[in-house]
Amino acid sequence: MKKHVFHVPDMSCGHCVKRISSALEEEGLTDFEIRLETKTVTIETDAPQKILEALEEAGYPATLQN
């Protein structure tokens, strides 16, 4: 698996972090880092498109930074 960093420009508060965390956990993911100060989510995955879709469904469209 490769580490990917996703930029989530609409993430602005603790509530956003909780919603994003819940969306990722619903996808069966538990090992990820959410950084509000940089508006990023870092996660090791072989399916970055699946993460982008989960974030979009949660209301937080993201872009892959790497």
TrEMBL record:
The Swiss-Prot or TrEMBL record annotates one GO molecular function as: metal ion binding
Q: Does the keyword Metal-binding apply?
A: yes
Q: Which UniProt keywords apply?
A: Metal-binding
Q: Where in the numbering of this chain does the HMA domain appear?
A: 2-63
Pfam families associated with the record: HMA
UniProt KW Metal-binding keyword: yes
Q: In its UniProt entry, what is this protein called? A: Heavy metal transport/detoxification protein
Protein species of origin: Aminobacterium colombiense (strain DSM 12261 / ALA-1)
